[in-house]
Write a structure and sequence with these properties.
The chain has 253 residues and is of the alpha+beta class. It is built from three helices and ten strands, in the order H-E-E-E-E-E-E-E-H-E-E-H-E. A hairpin with a 2-residue loop joins strand 1 and strand 2. The chain is rod-shaped, with a radius of gyration of 52 Å. It starts with 54 loop residues before the first helix and ends with a strand.
Length: 253
């Protein structure tokens, strides 16, 4: 019996899939974790960035402060320059005052049953001098008080008011002040001491004035400064040969 030749086995093409073979189950899908919002950044002090102050506002504040400081420095510098120019050009000097004369008219002490009384008229002359060549002084109303005696023996001789006036450059002005008292009660012991010193010209006299002084430049008045002027403190005998200078205090009343 003869053998039949065997047929060659056909090869399956790539990707061939047997329809009789069951399909494998699909691979499981990997689950993804839910997405979380990114964490909020914090500053070094633990404050969220949303609460951090804006740099723009801070820079504006610094710029304003710098501008104000520079302006103040410039104003001070300009003021110093203007003051230096004023002093160099005008060479300002304070006015000078002296007590040129003082007298007591009708000085009378009377011994009454109730005590002693004083009646007299005090007349004083104050010399006022402006040493400046380009500046003018303006004086306001001046209140003047006069007294005699010193220490516990000082006795008031009345007061007066002098109207304000203008004093030009290189000008000397003599101001007359007159006050009086009539039947002013004094202690008997004081009356005796005053009478004795008046006869010997050892009686001390005092003149105190309160006024305001202003400066004038080119017809323009610059401020009014309160001053306190004190003259005297010397005896009547010394006034016959000397004119004592008065003490000028500013900003004092």
């Amino acid at each position: 019996m003869s053998d039949y030749p065997m047929k060659p086995v056909l090869q399956k093409p790539p990707g061939y899939r047997d329809p009789n073979t069951p399909s494998p189950p699909p691979p499981p899908v990997a689950s993804r974790p839910p997405q979380q919002p990114p964490p909020m950044r914090k500053t070094a002090a633990g404050m969220p960035t949303t609460f951090r102050p804006k740099r723009r506002r801070r820079n504006c504040f610094k710029s304003c402060c710098c501008c104000v400081c520079i302006t103040i420095v410039l104003l001070i510098f300009l003021f110093l320059i203007a003051t230096a120019v004023f002093y160099l050009w005008f060479d300002p000097k304070l006015p000078t005052f002296s007590l040129s004369s003082f007298r007591l008219d009708g000085f009378k002490l009377t011994d009454d049953p109730d005590g002693s009384s004083l009646s007299s008229t005090a007349v004083a002359r104050v010399e006022m001098r402006n040493p400046n060549t380009k500046l003018v002084f303006y004086y306001g109303d001046t209140a003047v008080d006069m007294s005699v005696g010193s220490g516990n023996d000082e006795t008031q001789m009345g007061d007066a008011t002098i109207e304000g006036f203008r004093q030009g450059p290189k000008n000397s002005t003599s101001v007359k002040v007159e006050t009086s008292v009539k039947n002013q009660l004094v202690d008997r012991g004081l009356a005796k001491r005053l009478a004795s010193k008046f006869q010997s010209k050892d009686l001390v006299i005092n003149v105190v004035a309160k006024t305001k002084v202003g400066l004038g430049v080119g017809g323009m008045k610059i401020g009014m400064l309160a001053v306190n002027l004190r003259c005297g403190g010397v005896s009547l005998s010394k006034l016959d040969t000397d004119s004592p200078k008065c003490i000028l205090n500013t900003l004092k009343w």
